[in-house]
Fold each of these.
Amino acid sequence: MTLTHPSRKPLPIEVRGTAKLPFGMSAAQFLRDYWQKHPLLIRNAFSDFQSPVTPEDLAGLACEESALSRLIQHDEDRERWRVKTGPLSESDFAKTGDANWTLLVQDVDKWDMDVAALLDHFRFLPSWRVDDVMISYAEPGGGVGAHVDQYDVFLLQGLGQRYWAISTDPNAPKDFRSDVELKQLQHFEPTHKWLLDPGDMLYLPPGIPHDGVAFGGPCMTYSVGMRAPSQGELVGDLADYLAEHLTEDQRFTDPNLVPAKHPGEIDKAALTRVREAVPLATALDEVTLIDWFGRFITRYRSAQTPLALSKPLTEAALMKQLNGGASLLRHPWSRMAWARHRSRCTLFANGHAYPATMESATQLCDQRMLSPPHTFSTIERELILALVNDGYLIPRKPRGRHA
């Protein structure tokens, strides 16, 4: 089978390795044509490869307190998966049987110099991109199920044979099963299938569904995985870094403040000052900036916040109270603000966001006690009901009336 490069020139999905690099081509060509673009199977990537680690070595390492290991067993008849996290013991292996199980041990390159030496073949990549060498041992039928990795990985066959199936379908579904601990795909239809021998290596870019199963006998696979932090990790760590290095006297300021037309509004001028005060905020579009800052600024410094009703009111029950003359009191611990983007208005209350009309948001922020109008729009009715049930508004019966 062949894959099609964006230039529309066909690229082979299978090549032969070379003595210099385990890619059957130059490093520059591999990075240009395959890296984070297409999978590639390299037959005989490592000639006459001999696994530097034995299955017994790997099992022993899995029993170490500080090693990261998992034992995964598959009950084919009941379609059940069992995952045990290390450190493991000899008794754990005594219960495995001779089929349908696999052992995964991460960071083996930190424990074994010969395994670490394999990384020398990947020196054309930035060393800080390489995460670890994970080794998996499996008996026939053993694997972890069809799944997707969010990072580049090189899968080097070290012992025995492993049957690999992958999907290069760009529309392949990637929903996870909810009945197993592993992040397995609900549906998997392979477009390519191979049987790998020792020394063969499969490169997979991020997001390619794949499934590897030990075939015929004991199997060991060396997985050279790349470090690929999520944007959430990057932003979270940068935020922690900035928070640690900024001083207490560096604060949000507004020396050129003008009288507010609507006291509860987070207006465009305020958003501009937020961007100036928070370096990270410059990367946010206006909708995201509004959503973050509105939630942030309406949270109290302390944990004080109104409690949601233990028994939520129905819309009918609330409307009966309001039609009977009840007013709405803003809870003393309720902190509100609102913002608009184009025709959209959002009310923020103690870190939560609610769709609102500009009129209702203005009233809720400006008045501690308000008398609802005789008629509500759908969005206003849903807003009031949500705020009452979440504890931010308290219905008050009119004076002189009794239950």
Amino acid sequence: MSQLIVKRVYDPPLPSDGMRILVDRLWPRGIAKDRIEMWLKDIAPSDVLRHEFHGHPDRWDEFRAAYAAELGSASAQAALATLEEKLAQGPVTLLYAAKDETRNNAEALRLWLEERPSAAKNR
């Protein structure tokens, strides 16, 4: 698997970012379309999940488990296939808008990708 980076969408783009992919359900305020190369909103947590865990960093493990379950949906699986294609081509930066730099959906997605059994085969 190529290099996978997680970065806040408001941080300046760098050449080392590779393909910059937004993995939030909502477009971030004040961000021009040319700062993001792809938007995979179907890979983002549902609105219900996002609202349920917003502002509750103490429920991180619960959020990750619920988000992992959502990643099994057909629309999320299609978005994951696209993400895996991009990873096969080079570095990918998962972009998110949340203020918490350690507990956000992009980091949860990165961890999920690295922990799933098929990830070991792709390395």
